[in-house]
Amino acid sequence: MKRVLEVNDLSVSFKSDSEEVQAVRNVHFNLYERETLAIVGESGSGKSVTVQSILQLIAMPPGEIISGSILLNGEDLVQKSEKQMEEIRGKEIGVIFQDPMTSLNPTMRIGRQITEGLIKHQKMSKKIAYEKGMELLNLVGIPNPITRINQYPHEFSGGMRQRVMIAIALASNPKILLADEPTTALDVTIQAQILGLLKEIQQNMKTAIILITHNLGVVANTADRVAVMYGGKMVETGTVDEIFYNPKHPYTWGLLASMPKLNDAKEELQSIPGSPPDLKSPPKGCPFAARCPHVMKVCDTHMPDYIKTSSTQKTACWLLDERAPKVNSPINVGGGRNDE
Amino acid sequence: MMSNSRKKLVEISNLKKYFKLDRHNTVKAVDGLNFDIYKGETFGLVGESGCGKSTAGRTILRLYQATDGEVLFKGEKVHEKKSKHELKVFNQRMQMIFQDPYASLNPRMTVIDIIAEGLDIHGLSNSRKERIQKVNELLETVGLNREHGNRYPYEFSGGQRQRIGIARALAVNPEFIVADEPISALDVSIQAQVVNLLKKLQKEQELTYLFIAHDLSMVRHISDRVGVMYLGNMAEVATSRELYKNPLHPYTKVLLSAVPIPDPKLERTRKRIEVKGEMPSPIDPPSGCVFRTRCPLANDVCAKEKPIFQEVKQDHWVACHMYDDRYRTEFNK
To answer: Which residues of A, range 148-207, sit inside 8 Å of B by Cβ?
Structure first.
């Protein structure tokens, strides 16, 4: 598999005079051609900040990349100037945000928003860019592109606006698509349409997708690999099957157990007591220690290293240390097809 | 819950709520609902945005006046003319929990005052001491500490705020609570905490819930019976087990098949029922069956006649011509 993006030891903080919020701490992951990597975690876990740092979209100040590198084609994006980044955003990496209402410019016709990048970065003439724009609208399933291209965002429904966002993100045939909660604001039937569309595009254009979501159903439907984030750290990564059927981190266990299954019998939901850590003064050891049912002394003081449990799965948890007591995954994971 | 032992708490018949936009346009947000809510049950109301589920919940509580139809609460008409005093007595028995834990708590009031507002209005505490004692009890009931009482809403996380909203609703000892998307704004692990709390309270205080949500798996988990709304109309009502195992209405089937299940192997083999387009505008809904413009099985009769919402087997109601004896044959061609 060809590696298209490599994030090494990335740490991002937001600083003010008196305090520092350590939003992302020492995150490391790779992205391969044609795959979908899902980053899951609760709000404040650092998943959006991670993706925004890839594009250098974080306002600096107050944001600051404290350490790490982000390698695209062997070049470090952290070292690029704003001008160079504009070029990369326009050509190499497309992005889709959660809220299609606020991420489109309400005062600009759709056509201008789609063609902007084409004219600027691909040096197309206006006429050719508009033809390509209509082609893109057609590709993302917007009927009647000739009329639609001259309309404003408010004339589109939520699902249609998200299709427009996807069309803009795809305009330059990017190798990488970053999708930050792309279906969270949409209804389930529209969500199914958009996820289907993303898969189809990925097949045809070999795009690598980073999908940020908190919906584990969407992850199961779309992802090839999963990275689980908690308290600014990546606590576990693996293939989608490994994460759902053989998770090793207690936070992953808790996350999977707190989901109601569409076809399960009625019982109390497993919840994770407490709430996530305050990243102004993140815990010295494992970020999940305060809520972990299997916490040991060492967890409060030392961050565990990643331990590989297969060629594709690695987990940062002291339970995997050979000196730790053996704890089995407490839950019957996956959708649980046994109804009765 | 057995069908012969259950008592109707809320009876909704032909309930309509229209919003007039201007002289020519009216939004038919709720267009003729018929269903009952039994004492002690959780009735889940699901549907996509714009289907009218929130409007239905608010109209049932008389937060909106009904355009037509009737709601009976323990046999008493909810929307009839009531004196100020009658309304006050009445309101105490029905409460609401809102979706947005950030917008539904007054940021300038302390938690004590937020929770005690209902106690004050309904004169449920006789002294300052009793007032504070009751609030402390409520805080503990919802899993907060009494020290939290003197703080302001901004000092709490989303999950904690939702607990404050629940404590406020419980303060006046209601019998019936409408919870409008009470967990949608919360993270998954926090959602489970709040849902477990709601279920525990229901058992302890014999509460009846109307639980409005768009998350079908959570609704299945919490509800005894579920109603599916589409464009102001009720498409189907059944016990939650029956509805998820044996959905009848084509829209319910579409909706269930669209929900991704957190099981990768199952997802890879699942067939989705495709549905065309998006929900039409409630200003000008389609003639006949409102779902017919997107229904994979729509027939001529669907455009001509509005399907009757009827009980096709015990406890399973559906509004679809496919299950109407007069038209059944039309769909077997």
So the answer is: 157-160, 187-192, 195-196
